[in-house]
Design goal:
The structure holds 2 protein chains of 2 kinds. Chain A folds into 2 domains: 165 residues, Thiamin diphosphate (ThDP)-binding fold, Pyr/PP domains (Rossmann fold, 3-Layer(aba) Sandwich); 137 residues, Rossmann fold. Helix content of chain A is 37%, strand content 20%. In chain A, the strands form 3 sheets. A 7-stranded mixed sheet of chain A has the order 3-2-4-5-7-6-12, with helices on both faces. Chain A has a 5-stranded mixed sheet with strand order 9-11-10-13-14, sandwiched between helices. In chain A, strands 1-8 form a two-stranded antiparallel ribbon. Chain B is α/β, with parallel strands linked by helices. Chain B has a single domain, classed as Rossmann fold (3-Layer(aba) Sandwich), CATH 3.40.50. Helix content of chain B is 39%, strand content 11%. In chain B, helix 8 links the parallel strand 6 and strand 7. In chain B, helix 1 packs antiparallel against helix 9. The chains are: A alpha/beta, B alpha/beta. At the A-B interface, helix 3 and helix 4 of A face helix 4 and helix 5 of B.
């Protein structure tokens, strides 16, 4: 059963599709309207990262950096030192990819509250190919002390996350996707940094066999898988873990205790990603069998988003198979 | 606002005495630490002295005074000179300098503002200071246009001019005509692996900054009058950021350490420190020291 605050038409064939990065662009504009300390810096990808909405409205608060991602991070740190709330944008591969040390030292070590929006994350970037598909970014950001890591599941959540990022006294990484993706949440769906959302839960009384914890646009695949599994009599809970750091330990522990089997789903390398973060926690407090859906230690390539999601084993079919496998493992243990 | 150094009149002898005291502190703290950098801090002592005892708008009693000038030390490894200058300027007791690099000390091996909040930035990894200084100057310019008399200074080494990030920051500052940004390059010609012109030639260095639309001056980094004059000239340029290339002698003040890149990254031992302190206290043998 879908969470009541979600888009109840999300299973429709013609479900509304909006790029997550567009939600960021609208969120930045709204954050800038609310707080004049918000400034925007971009490394020559203003429209691609949807910062152009902000640039057009507030040209004097926008800084065009050129192709200079290391400078992008550290200039933002200097502006934050003077009381600004800087948002920096590029493709995730270049920021936080190329400028990782500057983010680590001049932003996080320095304790400056810069908001890093990395667009074009995941293999669903599509035809641009592997150079432009960031599938290591969750790993390299969540490892840095002080950093908050948010991976919104759709455009509406991205807008809320952007507003929340502007308001929090911490450096934040916002992970954004390029392609149009299904709109799952609504304006009524709660969002708070550090809080996960239960998107789908079995009807009361049904025995829960597994919990699917997903992040980003692939939460949709998890929801589709949940419905298919239910038709086969396998009842699952689906959690949207949009904040990867700090981790919502309460919800993760609760669903692990109920289901006693967990599948994590992300458009990212399995090594060091969201699934790793969940496993780091659960192995300490409540170890259960886990399966990890993500990219298996390889690089991306050109293709349509659908082809790539399928090829790298992140699609609905793979999620269903992973749930069946983890349920079997869980039963053997009992 | 009597505590603000900017109001002081220029007194070359007083600055020379202060610089000598700071150099002695540098030797003492490096000896106590047992590790750290010697050549750079001694070489930049005169620039730091001119800044904190004559040029800067700052108040050691109110380190977080919003109107203060900002100083970004990009090459964090020369922090002994920053710490010693802070102490002699009255930010904290001189005796605290002996805690340099020790566990729990506010004086970390490379500056860390989590430990010493009066620092504008944490630094150490080379070449990212100028970007942060550009960000500070940009933010000030967004808020105050050309009317701000608050300056951001960035102190850099010559070795870090080899890094691409410096070039990125240089271009952005030139593009945005950051008149409120004044850079210093410690042109001492050494870096950890040898002489800069052998490692990666930087010359013509001034021409590079001119090409990015900076106002460029080359000065003797041990001449207080030239340092002060160069900053005054920089402040008179309204259309461009300014770069002051300060020609310095690494290890300046201790003859045995001067011009030797081997002194880039090591501290003096007990005997070398005694020799150095004696040389500084006697102004190179010009006066008889009671310690002799």
């Amino acid at each position: 059963m879908l969470n009541k605050t979600l888009n109840q038409k999300l299973y429709d064939k013609n479900v509304e599709m909006i790029p997550i990065r567009k939600g960021f662009g609208e969120g930045l504009l709204a954050a800038a309207e609310k707080d004049e300390r918000v400034v925007g810096l971009c490394a020559d990808l203003t429209e691609s990262t949807q910062m152009h909405l902000f640039k057009e409205r507030y040209p004097h608060r926008f800084v065009q950096m050129g192709v200079a991602e290391q400078n992008l991070a550290s200039v933002a740190s200097g502006m934050a030192a003077m009381g600004k709330i800087p948002f920096i944008t590029s493709y995730a591969m270049f920021s936080p990819g190329r400028n990782w040390e500057q983010i680590r030292t001049t932003i996080c070590y320095n304790d400056r509250y810069v908001k890093i929006a990395g667009s074009h994350a995941g293999v669903s970037v599509g035809p641009d190919g592997g150079t432009h598909q960031a599938i290591e970014d969750i790993c390299i950001t969540r490892v840095i002390p002080r950093m908050v890591v948010i991976s919104p599941c759709d455009a509406i959540e991205a807008k809320k996350a952007t507003l929340a990022a502007a308001a929090i006294n911490a450096p934040v990484y916002l992970r954004l996707a390029r392609e149009k993706t299904p709109v799952m949440t609504t304006h009524d769906t709660p969002f708070e940094i550090g809080k996960a959302t239960i998107m789908y839960s079995p009807d009361s009384g049904a025995k829960i066999s597994a919990a699917i914890i997903a992040t980003g646009a692939v939460v949709y695949g998890a929801l589709v898988a949940a419905r298919e599994l239910e038709a086969r009599g396998v009842h699952v809970t689906v959690v949207n873990l949009s904040t990867i750091k700090p981790l919502d330990q309460e919800i993760i522990l609760k669903v692990a205790q109920q289901a006693k089997a967990v599948v994590t789903v992300e458009e990212h390398q399995i090594a060091g990603g969201m699934g790793s973060a969940v496993a780091e926690y659960l192995t300490q407090v409540y170890p259960v069998p886990m399966e990890f859906i993500g990219v298996h230690d390889t690089f991306g390539q050109s293709g349509t988003p659908a082809e790539l999601i399928e090829h790298y084993g992140i699609g609905t079919k793979s999620i269903v198979a992973a749930v069946e496998k983890v349920v079997k493992r869980s039963r053997t243990l009992r | 606002m009597s505590s603000v150094s900017q109001s002081r009149s220029f007194n070359e002898n007083a600055l020379a005495i202060t610089a000598n005291n700071i150099r002695q502190s540098i030797i003492e703290m490096l000896l106590a630490a047992g590790s750290g950098h010697t050549a750079g801090p001694l070489g930049m002592t005169d620039v730091f002295t001119a800044l904190y005892f004559h040029i800067l708008k700052h108040d050691p009693k109110k380190p977080d005074w919003p109107e203060r000038d900002r100083v970004v030390l990009s090459n964090g490894h020369i922090c002994p000179v920053l710490y010693a200058t802070f102490a002699h300027a009255g930010y904290f007791p001189v005796k605290e300098l002996l805690t340099l690099r020790k566990f729990g000390s506010r004086l970390q091996g490379h500056p860390h503002r989590e430990f010493l909040p009066m620092l504008e930035t944490s630094s150490g990894p080379l070449a990212s200071g100028l970007s942060q200084a550009v960000g500070m100057a940009l933010a000030d310019k967004i808020d105050n246009g050309n009317s701000s008399d608050r300056y951001t200074y960035c102190l850099m080494s010559d070795g870090e001019q080899e890094s691409g990030q410096i070039w990125e920051a240089g271009m952005l500052a030139g593009k945005n005509r950051l008149h409120n940004l004044i850079g210093f390059i410690d042109r001492n010609n050494i870096q950890i692996d040898g002489f800069t012109e052998d490692i990666m030639p930087l010359e013509p260095l001034g021409a590079k900054w001119e090409a990015w639309n900076w106002h460029v001056q080359e000065i003797d980094g041990h001449n207080f009058e030239e340092i002060v004059d160069a900053v005054n000239r920089a402040k008179a340029v309204f259309e461009k950021p300014s770069m002051i290339i300060a020609r310095t002698i690494p290890g300046k003040g201790v003859h045995a350490f001067e011009r030797k890149y081997e002194w880039h990254g090591k501290p003096p031992n007990k005997e070398e420190a005694a020799m150095a302190l004696n040389e500084l206290r006697t102004l190179g043998g010009k006066i008889i020291s009671e310690h002799q």
